[in-house]
Amino acid sequence: VATRPRTSFSTYSEEETRALGERLGRVLRRGDVVLLHGELGAGKTRLAQGIAVGLDVRQSVTSPSYVLMNEYPGRTRLFHIDLYRLAEAGELEDLGVWDHAEDGCLVIEWPERAENLLPADGIEVFIDEGDAADARVVSVQSRGSRGDTILRTLEGAG
Ligand SMILES: Nc1ncnc2c1ncn2[C@@H]1O[C@H](COP(=O)(O)OP(=O)(O)O)[C@@H](O)[C@H]1O
Ligand SMILES: [Mg+2]
After folding, report:
1. What are the E-state strand segments in the chain?
2. β pairing state of 136-142 and 104-109
3. What's the gap in Å between 98 CA and the centre of ligand 2?
4. What is the pLDDT of residue 49?
5. How many Å is the Cα radius of gyration of the chain?
6. Which residue, among 60, 72, 66, has the nearest Cα to 103 in the 3D structure?
7. Are 129 and 153 in contact (CB under 8 A)?
8. What pLDDT does residue 2 have?
9. Which of 29, 86, 103, 153 sits most deeply, having the most CB atoms within 10 A of its CB?
10. Which segments of the chain have a pLDDT < 50?
């Protein structure tokens, strides 16, 4: 099996993480899936807010932790999902989360909570602490052929 491409970015403020998210969001299109990994406070929601800007979402994006999923109109629809408080996998069925996979972009915080249920392909993002308080290392990993294209476009887009 060929290794999927992976690339890393460093950010030094929440604004830089939002800007990186915006770059990523500009590359995304309907049907894309972005999994966001990282501890509480890592910056997953900040990155998602940037992705929303890149998808031309005009509303402000807030954390969906209590509702599990927020939907925003944009260039394509954004489904911002946070599975932190997911109690059981059945809740995802009730929300119809996977029914939306083809209607827009899915951006999923805490995807490990639904490990075996996640849609294939797209990209996976890991946000880790950097070497200063506000520094983060943001690694983007492809999960399939569409993910490969997203990564190539992201790297080409400077
Ligand atoms: N480089 C950075 N990128 C993103 N957030 C940062 C950064 N530096 C500091 N922060 C702070 O970290 C927190 C990230 O919060 P949030 O995006 O809600 O995290 P998560 O969704 O991963 O729990 C915010 O308080 C933000 O101001
Ligand atoms: Mg969050």
Report:
1. 6-11, 33-37, 69-72, 77-82, 104-109, 123-129, 136-142
2. unpaired
3. 20
4. 98
5. 14
6. 72
7. no
8. 67
9. 86
10. none
Ligand 1 within 6 A of CB of 87:
no
Q: Is 73 in the pocket of ligand 1 (CB under 6 A)?
A: no
Q: What is the pLDDT of residue 92?
A: 84
Of the candidates 120, 116, 140, 136, the one whose C-alpha atom is nearest the C-alpha of residue 128 is: 136
Q: List, for residues 45-64, the tens digit of each pLDDT value.
A: 999 999 999 999 999 999 98
pLDDT value at residue 65: 79
- The DSSP H or E segment spanning 44 is helix 44-54
Q: Ligand 1 within 6 A of 43 CB?
A: yes
Tally of residues, the chain:
158
Mutation to probe ligand 1, out of 11, 12, 14 (largest number of atoms < 8 A from CB): 14
- Number of C-beta neighbours around residue 90 at 10 A: 9
| The predicted structure's pLDDT at residue 1 | 57
